[in-house]
Design goal:
heterotrimer; A mainly alpha; B mainly alpha; C alpha/beta; A: mainly alpha; 8 helices; globular; B: mainly alpha; two-stranded antiparallel sheet; 7 helices; 2 strands
């Protein structure tokens, strides 16, 4: 059980450091909010009802802001060489992956939970329901699962932060498509069971890429 | 002359001849498609190029992924050379696929571009390759470059079928050429030209890959010699 | 660690170690044996491969060729098991800015699976002179204080083998003195020094130190090794050498090789 102890220790360390500075949470949240507002100006009066575009707005805001957060998470590990400190410890590399990934996941979920009420008020929609949250969770999980590996790569290249969206978005596309489709379906009054194929697709993506990340993360952090 | 390079010359000449035969079949010998406007009839012949390049871009990407896995497993640099060689060809074939598809789409669908699933998927594949090369160019240390790009190639290739499914469910207007219930939508004469094209293009890919791979290995040799001579 | 009683087993055994970054070689065939309890000091000009060697020994970097055995186990195959017995101080402090000194040590104690680490953490913080600042964030620390904490971090799990890459970087003279005393103790020299009970001086640790400071380096060394151009160019038992003689040797082996300006790296 040392594996999960290490995972929890890493998550706890990230949360504690974050609560102290709130660097990631605050900048990611404000950026997500700004994205929503900018989209509002981009679409308003051009589409018959904002309800038609809100699902897209939510997912674009999450992926843009989430990318920002992922970058921060590994820059922090690199700056004082603390990632090397983690690697020196007698801890499975996969435990480091799960620790960082789950911490990233928690951060993005917290931002989403803060963002959703505002989106509800802005666009007069009901978004805090079981199915909506499930869809958000599954999509965000896929985002964190793949994004954690890619951000670990991006920060140790010359281009650093700039590279992450270029690497991440083409691989992430199915999650975005499925997320927009399902959130849109829910907004239009469909039930989740009518969108079973989309749920399966995201679940397959999440599970599949968690396994791939589990197998490859060691190659990303070790020399 | 080395035995291997003699074989390579034979293969290269064969693939050149193969391409000529494929063009001959595609443009002259294959029968006209029936029931189409004249514009569409000519445009239809693009499938003899379009489908092989599409198939090869996927094959090339698949080879990149397999070579990447082999690199991670063995830590032998030549696997990375093979991966990058194949990825470069894949990028070119993806572009050729998009270009030829666009040429066909204009008379058939009356637009150069549409968000059709296959077309969109190929655009994403193109961007995956671009990201692969951007990742490579952002690092100096060859061992790290090989490790990172190998990991990325695995993620990228595995995402392609999921991307395709997701866009397909999104919307589709692409002609389904291979319908499992009805067999090919091609007449026997067209089939001959189609498969000759497929074979010629595949041989062409293999030959290019070998040349490109040898070039990559030679580059490494030059680097090594330079280092030994103290440049 | 596994120790066979019959023959003396080297704690660290390096054979024909090479490391290439692309076509650039950082190490070109290094052979090294460090016996249990021995203190080995590595000297050499910048770019000689010292840090690369320490990174490989600490399992952070994989060699391009050759083998490393630590405690009789192959580092390539048993890195996970060996890491528990290694304590590393590197150029980077390997700490978290946004955590306090105490939280940093607590976090790493958890990763090393230490039971009840509090007394150990307290003793170490006292030893490196940071106990009064234990509740302060690392980001508020000076360079020297960060380095002190990095040293405490490396000693946290009472490692059998210490790998120190220029541990005195950024230390003020007082802290350098403290580090020096600590290292003497750990290498089994300062037998009568009044260290706190938890800093552990019962047995001599195996220590590999990279340093630029000739006098300090020699005073803790059982054996001195000069690395130049990715190779071991000179190796000697340190006790029969005085600093001046060693400097002449150093200049002779390093200065004349075009591996940097003469005397580079030795102030």
């Amino acid at each position: 059980m040392n594996f999960w102890k290490a995972v929890v220790a890493i998550i706890w360390k990230d949360i504690r450091a974050e609560l102290r500075t709130k660097d990631i949470l605050s900048s990611v949240f404000v950026f997500a909010l700004l994205t929503v507002i900018v989209f509002n100006f981009a679409y308003e009066l051009r589409v018959p009802s904002m309800k038609m575009v809100v699902p897209g707005i939510i997912w674009v805001a999450i992926s843009f802001a989430g990318t920002l957060g992922l970058n921060r998470a590994f820059v922090i590990e690199q700056d004082k060489g603390s990632l090397a400190g983690l690697l020196l410890a007698p801890v499975d590399r996969a435990a480091i992956y799960f620790g960082k990934m789950l911490a990233n996941l928690i951060f993005i979920l917290v931002v989403e939970l803060a963002l959703l009420p505002l989106v509800m008020i802005f666009f007069n929609l009901s978004l805090i329901t079981g199915p909506h949250l499930l869809v958000l969770f599954l999509g965000t999980y896929g985002f964190a699962a793949v994004g954690t590996v890619f951000s670990a790569m991006a920060v140790s290249t010359r281009a650093r932060e700039v590279l992450l969206p270029v690497l991440l978005f083409p691989v992430l596309l199915p999650v975005l498509v499925a997320g927009v489709k399902m959130t849109g379906g829910l907004v239009d009054g469909a039930s989740l069971s009518e969108m079973g194929n989309w749920l399966q697709l995201v679940a397959l993506y999440d599970v599949g890429f968690t396994v791939v990340a589990y197998l490859t993360f060691g190659f990303v952090v070790e020399e | 002359m080395e035995r291997s390079s003699r074989w390579l010359i034979v293969l290269t000449v064969l693939s050149g001849l193969g391409m000529l035969v494929a063009i001959l079949f595609a443009l002259l010998l294959a029968p006209n498609a029936v029931g189409l406007t004249p514009d569409e009839t000519y445009a239809q012949r693009i499938i003899y190029f379009h489908v092989p390049t599409a198939w090869l871009s996927m094959l090339a990407f698949g080879v990149t992924m397999v070579a990447s896995i082999a690199y991670l497993a063995s830590n032998k640099r030549h696997w990375d050379s093979l991966a990058v060689s194949s990825a470069e060809l894949g990028l070119i074939f993806t572009l050729a696929t998009a270009a030829s598809g666009s040429v066909w789409a204009k008379p058939a669908w009356n637009v150069w571009w549409t968000w059709d699933p296959r077309l969109t998927t190929y655009t994403i594949v193109f961007l995956l390759f671009v990201a692969y090369f951007m990742l490579r160019s952002a690092m100096e240390d060859p061992a790290r470059r090989a490790r990172f790009s190998s990991v990325y190639a695995i993620f990228a290739f595995l995402s392609v079928p999921i991307t395709f499914m997701s866009i397909r469910w999104w919307r589709t207007i692409h002609p389904v050429l291979i319908d499992p219930n009805e067999g090919f939508g091609l007449s026997p004469g067209m089939m001959t030209a189609f498969f000759i094209g497929l074979a010629a293009f595949t041989l062409f890919y293999v030959v290019l890959l070998i040349h490109r791979y040898r070039l990559e290995r030679m580059k490494e040799q030059v680097e090594l010699l330079k280092e030994q001579l103290g440049y | 660690m596994s120790e066979k009683a019959a023959e003396p087993v080297a704690m660290i055994e390096v054979r024909n170690l090479t490391k290439a970054f692309g076509s650039k070689y950082a190490l070109r065939g290094v052979d090294l044996r460090v016996m249990p309890g021995e203190s080995l000091v590595l000297f050499g000009p910048n770019g000689a491969g010292k840090s690369t060697l320490v990174r490989i020994l600490s399992s952070l970097s994989r060699p391009s060729g050759g083998t490393v055995h630590i405690g009789g186990l192959s580092l390539a195959q048993h890195a996970d098991g060996i890491r528990r017995y290694l304590g590393v101080v590197s150029h980077a402090p390997l700490l978290y800015d946004s955590l306090t000194a105490e939280e940093n040590l607590h976090f790493f104690a958890g990763l090393y699976n230490l039971k009840k680490p509090e007394p150990r953490i307290k003793a170490l913080l006292e030893r490196v002179g940071l106990y009064a600042r234990r509740g302060d964030l690392v980001r508020t620390f000076s360079r020297g204080m960060v380095q002190r904490l990095a040293i405490a971090r490396a000693l946290l799990h009472d490692p059998e083998v210490l790998l120190l890459d220029e541990p005195d970087t950024g230390l003020d003279p007082q802290a350098a003195e403290m580090l020096h005393g600590l290292l003497s103790e750990l290498s089994g020299r300062g037998a009568n020094s009044p260290g706190p009970e938890h800093s552990g001086v019962e047995r001599a640790r195996t220590i590999v130190t990279v340093t630029h400071s000739l006098e300090r380096g020699l005073s803790i060394a059982d054996r001195a090794v000069i690395l130049a151009n990715g190779r071991v160019v000179f190796e000697t038992a340190a006790h029969d050498l005085d600093a001046a003689a060693f400097r002449r040797l150093y200049d002779q082996y390093v200065g004349g090789r075009g591996a940097g300006p003469a005397g580079d790296g030795l102030p």
